[in-house]
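ok trying again, last paste got cut off:
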Amino acid sequence: MNKKNTILWVDDEIDLLKVQILFLRGKGYDVTTASNGLDAIDEVRSNTFDIIFLDENMPGLSGLDTLRAIREINQDVPVVMITKNEGEEIMDEALGSKVSDYLIKPVNPFQILSSIKKNIDNKRLVGIKTAEEYQSEFQTLGTEIAQVQDIDGWVTLYKKLVDWDLKLQDLNEDKTTLYEIFNYQKNEAGVAFCKYFEKNYEKWVNGTREHRPMMQMDVFKERILPMLDAGQKVFWIVIDNLRFDQWKALQPTIAEYLAVEKEEILCSILPTATQYARNAMFSGLTPLMISQLYPELWTDEDELHSKNNHERELIQTMLTRFRCDVKFTYNKTFTNREGQKITDNIQNIADTPLNIAVYNFVDMISHARTDNPMMRELADNEISYRALTKTWFEHSSLLTLIKTLSRKDFKVILTTDHGNTRVSNPVKVTGEKEITSNVRYKIGKDLQFNKKDVFEIQNPKLAQLPQQSISTRYIFAHNRDFMAYPNNFNYYAKYYSDTFQHGGVSMEELLIPFITLKPK
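nice, full thing came through this time. structure:
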C-alpha cells in the first residue's frame, strides 16, 4: 500500500478486540477505535476513513442509529456491520441503510482482512490484475488484428477491444500509459478494419444475404417479422447514434429489469448517417431502392427540409411489402417529456403488436459536444462520453419505459441506426458549393482529394446509393480522419478535432448493437 488505509472500529467491547486490532496494525492499517455511537459520529465528522466496522448491538445509540447518522455525514464510506444477531429483519434493515458487508460474531482477524480487501482494496487489486492480463494479451491481440479474415472475426475482435476498453478505463492514474498503448492498438485495428470493409462493401450491399453480415435492410425480415408471425408483441427501441461500447455501459442498469436474450452486432450501411441508415432499417430497403420505389419518401442531400420526415410511411410500406397486417405505433422523441408520454400511454398500446420508439438524445449529446465548449469539457474523452451517456440514461424517460416493459409481455429490441467515432486527423477536400457539409462524408461533383485519404465510390449505384447526376460521387473519411476545406483549414482542423462524428468508415460507426431483451 502506498498510504495507510484508515479504519474506524466501533464496538462497546472494544477492549476485547485487541488481537484483531493489533493484527490489522501489523498489516499496515491505521486503526482508530470508538466504544459508542456518539464518539463514532464525532470521529466521522472530524476525520476521513476508508472503512468503518460497526457493532450492531451497543447500549445507548444502537448500531443502526449510528449508521444512519454516519450516512448523513458521509454517503460513500464502506460500513461493515458486525452483530451477534442473525435475524433476517436486522439484516434487511442494515442492508437497506447501505452497509457494504455484514459479519456475524465472533469474527477472526482473517474475516476482517477479507472484508477490508473486498471493500477498499478490491479496485486496486483488480486494476493490477487487469494491467497484467492486458500486457499478457497485447501480443495475441496484435496477431489477431493482422490475421482476421472475415466479418465474424472482426465482430469478435471488436467485442474484445470494447471489453478491454471498459476494463482499462478504471485503472489507477499511474496506469494511464497502458491505456494509451491500448488506444494505439485499437487505432491499428481500426486502420486494418477500414481496409477490409472498403474491399468488401459493394459486394455486400449488392449480394445475397448469405454472403454479407446482417445490415439495416435485413433487420425487419430476419428479426422482427418472425416474432410478429409467432404472435409475439415487439417493442422496438432505436437510440440514435449509439455505439456498442455505450450499450455495454448501459447494460448493467438495463439488466436490473430486462434479461439479454441475444446480443448481436449489426453492420451499418454507408453513409453512417440517419438519413441513410435509419431509413434503410425502417423500409427494409437500400437508399437507392427507396429513392426508386418511393421517390416521394426520399429526400436528397441538397433539399433543405428534414431528411427523416417519412419514417412512419416507410414502416407502413415495409409491413405491406412483407404482407404483415399488424397495427403499429411510431414515436420519435427529442425531450424527456415526449419520452414520458410513451410510458404514460403504455396501457393503450399494451395489445398493439409492434411499437417503435426513436430516442434522439445520444445524438444530441454528440452534436452539442461539437458546438458547445461546456459539453466538450463534460465529455472530453471516450470514458467521459460513455459516462455522460450512462448518466442521461439513468435519469431518462427511456429507463422509466424499460422498467414498465419489464412488467409487460413484450420482446424488446434495442438498437441504433449508426455509431460515431472520435476524429483527430484532418484531410483536405475541395469541391463545388453544393458539396455536403458533413465532415465524415461528402457527396458532389468535381471533388478534389488525395485518394489515399478517403474511401471513394465513383459509381453510387454500385453501392446502392442514390445518384443525383451522372458525375455525382461519394467519398468517406476512414478511421479517425475528417474532411476540411483548404480555405480556413487550420480553423476547421482545430474546431472539429477531438469531436465525435459519424457518416464515415470506422468500427465504432459501422459495428453497432442489436440486442434482444425479455422481461426477467
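cool. The radius of gyration is 28 Å. The chain has a mean pLDDT of 90.
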